[in-house]
Backbone:
C-alpha cells in the first residue's frame, strides 16, 4: 500500500517542504518540493530570540505548508527545527504556536542529530566513496561538519557559527574589508579547534558541501559557462573545481550587495550570507589542504526521509 510522507526542515534561513510517496515496493516518488526564505534568524539570532516579524513569517509559512500537505493527503508529517529554534529563548513558544495553528508537531533536534541526518542525506545523493571526506553544511545558525565515508561516520559536530551569525559579527561594511575577512578566519580557527584535531586524525581528501551555499556556487558557475541545464533540474550530486570556486569567491568579496545580486545564479535570500559563508569555505579548504569540492543537493530532510524509510521497512 502506498504511503505519503511530508518532511519539513525549519532552517534558520530557509524552510523546506518535501512530500513524497512510498509505493508497495518501497520506491520513492517525489510529489512536491519547495523552499522558502523565511529568514527566521533575521533581527534576533544574535540576541537569542526569534524576532516578532520572523516569528510571524514562520507561522504563516507553516500554515501554508499545512494546506499543501492536506491537499496531497500526506498521512505522516515530520517537522524538524534546528539551530535558531533550539537556541532561541522563545523557541519553545514558537513550537507550541505552530502546533496550535497547524496541528504539526515540531521536533527540535540537537546539533548532533542534525549532523547525523545530514550524513544520511548526503550519502543517499551518491557523492561519498570509500575514501574519507569532510561534509560541510552551512546553515544560518549552525554549521555541521561530518568526517565520514560511504560506510560510516568517523566524527561529527555542530558548531553555532552559521552564516547569519557570521554576517552579524563580521559583515559591517559592504564590500567586506580585508580586516573583517581576517577577523572571521581567526574566529573560525579558534572555534573549529575540535574539527582541526579530528581532521588531523582522519585525514579527509575532499570537501563535500551540502545544499544552500554550495548549490549557489554551482548555479553561478553553470550560468557563467552558459550551462542552463541546472536551472531545469538540479543534479543531486555535482562538483565544482577549486579554480571555479575561487573565481566566484573573489567576485563575491569584491562586490557590494547590488552587484552580487546581479550575478547570474545568485538568490536574493543568499546575497549577503554567502559572503561570510564563502570565507568559511575558503578557510576550510586552506586550513585542511583539501583539493576537491563535491556538492550534494541532499541534506537534512533527505536524511530524515532515509531514516523514516528504514522505520517503515522494519
Residues:
Amino acid at each position: 500500500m502506498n504511503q505519503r510522507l511530508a518532511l519539513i526542515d525549519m532552517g534558520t534561513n530557509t524552510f523546506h517542504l518535501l512530500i513524497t510517496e512510498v509505493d508497495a515496493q518501497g520506491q520513492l516518488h517525489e510529489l512536491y518540493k519547495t523552499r522558502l526564505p523565511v529568514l527566521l534568524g533575521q533581527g534576533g539570532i544574535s540576541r537569542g530570540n526569534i524576532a516578532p516579524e520572523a516569528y510571524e513569517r514562520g507561522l504563516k509559512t507553516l500554515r501554508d505548508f499545512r494546506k499543501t500537505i492536506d491537499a496531497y493527503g500526506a498521512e505522516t508529517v515530520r517537522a524538524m527545527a534546528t539551530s535558531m529554534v533550539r537556541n532561541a529563548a522563545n523557541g519553545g513558544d514558537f513550537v507550541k504556536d505552530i502546533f496550535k495553528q497547524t496541528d504539526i508537531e515540531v521536533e527540535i533536534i540537537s546539533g548532533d542529530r542534525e549532523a547525523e541526518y545530514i550524513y544520511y542525506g548526503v550519502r543517499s545523493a551518491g557523492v561519498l566513496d570509500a575514501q574519507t571526506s569532510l561534509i560541510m553544511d552551512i546553515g544560518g545558525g549552525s554549521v555541521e561538519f561530518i568526517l565520514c565515508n560511504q560506510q560510516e561516520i568517523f566524527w561529527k559536530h555542530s558548531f553555532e557559527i552559521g552564516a547569519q551569525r557570521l554576517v552579524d559579527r563580521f559583515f559591517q561594511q559592504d564590500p567586506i574589508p580585508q580586516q573583517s575577512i581576517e577577523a572571521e578566519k581567526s574566529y573560525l580557527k579558534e572555534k573549529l579547534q575540535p574539527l582541526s584535531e579530528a581532521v588531523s586524525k582522519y585525514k579527509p581528501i575532499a570537501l563535500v558541501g551540502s545544499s544552500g551555499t554550495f548549490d549557489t556556487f554551482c548555479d553561478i558557475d553553470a550560468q557563467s559557462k552558459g550551462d542552463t541545464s541546472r536551472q531545469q533540474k538540479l543534479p543531486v550530486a555535482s562538483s565544482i573545481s577549486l579554480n571555479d570556486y575561487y573565481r566566484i569567491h573573489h567576485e563575491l568579496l569584491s562586490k557590494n550587495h547590488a552587484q552580487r545580486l546581479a550575478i547570474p545564479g545568485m538568490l536574493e535570500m543568499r546575497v549577503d550570507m554567502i559572503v561570510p559563508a564563502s570565507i568559511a569555505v575558503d578557510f576550510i579548504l586552506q586550513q585542511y589542504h583539501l583539493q576537491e569540492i563535491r556538492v550534494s543537493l541532499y541534506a537534512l530532510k533527505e536524511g530524515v526521509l532515509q531514516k523514516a524509510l528504514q522505520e517503515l521497512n522494519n
User: Anything to note?
Assistant: The longest helix spans residues 52-72. The domain at 3-109 is CATH 3.30.420.40 (Nucleotidyltransferase; domain 5). The chain has a mean pLDDT of 94.
